[in-house]
């Protein structure tokens, strides 16, 4: 086609080639510099000068590729095409391109699938197949135990109004449907961390945990996920320290295995709790400990592969520390840390960088509080109201109201009506008064 157009004096050019021609003509006429053209065409200045020279000597056709309208250097021989189409018409007329290529290769006629498809379409021997929407089915199970563990909580009338409200939190292995579950009074992050610790001590560390997008697993701000992709919740931080991948589902159907397990539990376990006349969370867990082995024996499936993907806990995996609620605080100059409106005095020895540094407050699941600096856990004591150790301290701003406000005295011994602030340097007992992290010192003399 290109040769015929050139015979008529018409040059076939692509849109890109026409754009390049317009810019180069501006360079030839002096309206643009070579540098400007190089920036517009995203070419080097040397390449622009080369094209400019070809345009002057050969005309507009210099910008057209030399193989335009010519057969490809990699095309197959016309004789092979004739043989392939003849064999297809004779023996493989109802074969698809892929299957036909396999049979043709057995005869020594080697040709690519897409090449054969184009030849058949050009000859009218094949029609494009309309692709329908794919049929959606359940995701296949993982290959072995510990590859993926789904986790979710079920808020349900487990005790049918007989006692307190409880929540069932469940972890189920995707490959085997093996279940580990426990009842809690609240579906909080502490409850999820507690069940995770039970799984870790029993089986080890799985490769991944599959959850929903609750605020326990995904950071939220006013009900919407945070824009920061690096933001983590306490549960996500714990999984990160254990080298466990956290996968968050976009729909309940995506974690259908744990959702279907709740359907079974809400049918069977509710009736079991009713027959046992359970009214408390402790009694429910005592009964659940008897029900879980039978449940796993009845409903668990063998994995496709006998291997176990769980990894053992290492020496550095201190579960009591990892599975805790952690907060950072700054150490004051007198080695005091304030947390939850309580002051804690850090005891010797003092480590380099501890004063003015950051420590991690660990609220552990057993109710204890630990303070960690780096990898070291520091000894501490609480500070009382009077500045001594051993008790909790209220807000220091309210300490001024614990004793009567001192007043000034005139030279004749009479009292002044204007009270003096407690930290005033004129008070005899205000020279050095310290309480917790605060220190009021004399700023001047009489």
From TrEMBL:
Gene3D superfamilies: Ribonuclease H-like superfamily/Ribonuclease H
Region Disordered, residue ranges: 385-431
GO biological process, one term: DNA integration
Name of the protein in question: Mobile element protein
One example GO MF annotation: nucleic acid binding
Signal peptide: none
Domain (Integrase catalytic): residue spans on this chain: 136-320
TM region positions: none
Top-level taxon of origin: Bacteria
Pfam family membership, one: HTH_28
Gene source species: Fimbriiglobus ruber
């Amino acid at each position: 086609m290109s040769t015929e157009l050139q015979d008529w004096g018409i040059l076939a050019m692509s849109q890109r080639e026409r754009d390049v021609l317009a810019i180069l003509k501006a360079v030839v006429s002096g309206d643009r510099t070579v540098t400007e053209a190089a920036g517009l065409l995203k070419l080097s200045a040397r390449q622009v000068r080369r094209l400019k020279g070809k345009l002057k000597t050969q005309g507009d056709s210099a910008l057209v590729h030399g193989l335009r309208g010519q057969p490809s250097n990699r095309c197959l021989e016309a004789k092979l095409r004739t043989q392939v189409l003849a064999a297809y018409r004779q023996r493989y007329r109802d074969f698809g391109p892929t299957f036909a290529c396999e049979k043709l290769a057995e005869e020594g006629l080697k040709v690519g699938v897409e090449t054969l498809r184009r030849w058949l379409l050009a000859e009218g021997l094949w029609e494009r197949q309309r692709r329908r929407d794919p049929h959606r089915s359940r995701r296949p199970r993982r290959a072995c135990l510990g590859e993926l563990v789904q986790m979710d909580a079920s808020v349900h009338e487990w005790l049918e109004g007989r006692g307190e409200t409880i929540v069932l939190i469940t972890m189920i292995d995707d490959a085997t449907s093996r279940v580990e579950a426990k009842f809690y009074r609240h579906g909080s992050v502490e409850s999820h961390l507690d069940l995770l610790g039970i799984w870790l001590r029993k089986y080890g560390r799985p490769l991944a945990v599959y959850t929903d997008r609750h605020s326990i697993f995904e950071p939220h701000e006013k009900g919407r996920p945070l824009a920061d992709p690096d933001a983590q919740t306490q549960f996500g931080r714990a999984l990160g320290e254990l080298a466990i991948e956290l996968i968050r589902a976009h729909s309940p159907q995506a974690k259908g295995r744990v959702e279907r397990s709740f359907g079974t539990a809400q049918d069977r376990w509710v009736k079991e709790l009713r027959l046992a006349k359970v009214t408390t969370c402790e009694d429910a867990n005592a009964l659940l400990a008897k029900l879980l082995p039978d449940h796993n024996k009845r409903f668990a499936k063998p994995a496709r592969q006998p291997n176990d993907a769980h990894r053992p806990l290492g020496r550095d995996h201190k579960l009591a520390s990892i599975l805790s609620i952690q907060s950072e605080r700054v150490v004051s100059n007198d080695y005091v840390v304030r947390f939850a409106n309580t002051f804690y005095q850090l005891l010797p020895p003092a480590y380099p960088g501890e004063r003015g540094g950051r420590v991690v407050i660990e609220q552990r699941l057993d109710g204890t509080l630990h303070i960690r600096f780096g990898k070291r856990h520091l000894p501490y004591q609480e500070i009382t109201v009077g500045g001594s150790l051993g008790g909790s301290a209220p807000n220091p701003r309210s300490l001024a109201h614990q004793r009567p406000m001192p007043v000034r005295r005139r030279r004749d011994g009479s009292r002044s009506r204007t009270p003096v602030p407690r930290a005033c340097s004129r008070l005899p007992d205000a020279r050095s008064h310290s309480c917790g992290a605060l220190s009021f010192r004399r700023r001047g003399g009489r």
